[in-house]
Design goal:
Blueprint lengths: L4 E2 L3 H8 L7 E7 L5 E5 L4 E2 L4 E5 L5 H11 L4 E6 L5 E12 L3 H14 L5 E12 L2 H11 L6 H5 L3
Antiparallel strand pairs: 1-8, 2-3, 2-6, 4-5, 5-8, 6-7, 7-8
Length: about 160
């Protein structure tokens, strides 16, 4: 991971809560059968206080197939969270369960119908593994601290 800043403890919970913000962009990145990344925006991703929840609408989607492969082979996925105030976080997560029936699934199904007018094919539950701050200001500060001599010549010549 290089010099990226991993978050921890209380800040992790605060960041995971930001998955529930109305203006947040959430992109789920899974790997296909050839190992190629498959990024897709997933507005239904949210934090329920214990785990990350995703509603999958189509049973035959690339995402659903890739998540099935991830759970079978214990491979993590990545969620890119970009908040309304332009903070960016990379959340590595492990698919823990796939619900397609039962009380919990039914509760989510009914909620999805009320919110969107559509049912869902599955509810995916994820355990967060690691959160990395990818915000531009954070990354610039990290790079300047780690590599103070990596400066473009035009920046050195520039007068403030």
């Amino acid at each position: 991971m290089g010099n990226e800043t991993l978050t921890s403890g209380d800040s992790d919970k605060a960041i995971l809560e930001r998955l529930n913000e109305a203006g947040a962009l959430k992109v789920l990145v899974t790997l296909d059968e050839h190992g190629a990344p498959h990024p897709t925006p997933k507005g239904s991703i949210r934090w329920d206080g214990e785990r990350i929840v995703l509603w999958e609408i189509l049973e035959s989607s690339h995402t659903n197939r890739n998540l099935t492969r991830s759970i079978w082979f214990d491979k993590p996925v990545v969620i890119l969270l970009v908040t309304a105030d332009k903070k960016a976080y990379k959340i590595a997560a492990r698919p823990a369960r796939n619900l397609t029936a039962g009380k919990e699934f039914t509760r989510h199904y009914e909620e999805a119908e009320q919110q969107r007018g559509l049912g869902i094919a599955a509810v995916w539950l994820f355990e967060p593994l690691e959160i990395t701050d990818q915000s531009a200001g954070t990354r610039i500060a990290q790079e300047r601290a780690a590599r103070p001599y990596f400066t473009h010549l035009d920046q050195l010549a520039r007068k403030d």
